[in-house]
Write a structure and sequence with these properties.
Layout: H1 4-7, H2 23-26, E1 50-54, H3 59-70, E2 74-79, H4 83-95, E3 100-104, H5 110-124, E4 127-132, H6 148-169, E5 173-182, H7 186-189, H8 195-212, H9 215-219, E6 223-229, H10 236-240, H11 243-248, H12 265-272, E7 283-286
Parallel strand pairs: 1-2, 1-4, 2-3, 4-5, 5-6, 6-7
Length: 294
Amino acid sequence: MKSEKENQVNIQTQEPQKGYYIDDSTKNVSPEPVMENPEYQGSGKLKDKVAVITGGDSGIGGAVAIAFAKEGAKLAILYLDSDDDAAAIVRRVKELGAEALSIKGDVGDDAFVKKAVSKIIEQYGHIDVLINNAGEQHVAESITEISPAQLDRTFRTNIFSMFYMVKAVLPHLNKGAAIVNTTSVTAYRGSSTLLDYSATKGAIVSFTRALSSNQEILGKAIRVNGVAPGPIWTPLIPATFSKEHVKRFGKDVPLDRPGQPYELAPAYVYLASNDSSYVTGQVIHVNGGEVVNG
């Protein structure tokens, strides 16, 4: 496991908003995001369960895929465009003895989502867990800088995709299945330079709560919850923010550092497994100690 000193951020050059997904996207990020905790030992919490993870090729999604593999899940990883990253995650998942299927495409496209779910069902026959994790963000100092195209893109990736995914997988979800949505600390305290992103993350919280009480969902005993990350060190951070911002990243929370992707993974394991059998409509905050919902 990385020491606290090694967890501190030393930004190098990276092109803004390019690939933010393990191999090609992290080569210019120092230190590389840590997606696996070698001390984490699985105990079969997800044995033989089929889990679909959007944005599962790096960062939080990649860390969740690795943890799920250690817990015995069969994985379907949906990713946008980074073939190297997806291949690296699939390779590690298989090294851990788990099955993995990767599917390339845009989860903000309803037609792609339907085709992807068909492939997953053809491979595995059913679905037990859906992790809605894909997301993107773009800095804008003023609301006037947010173009209609950017607004549409951010909402399609961050929240429309969740509607598309749930609609497509619902007929194939086993009784007692779990849905986990990735929201953000910005849903609760906002972000003055991530207006559209914060709005989508707030929408995800409301979507999670509303979906958890939907009668069709309850009729199949499906639990719906969320995870709200705080400052997590993923390739998306240097791809989004200035060097000055990145130098300060994670310094405004009580733990005084950014979190690593692997530190999020156990929250997803808990919400995906039967350990959380009496938990639905809730959001777990993994944010270094910032109190945002008290």
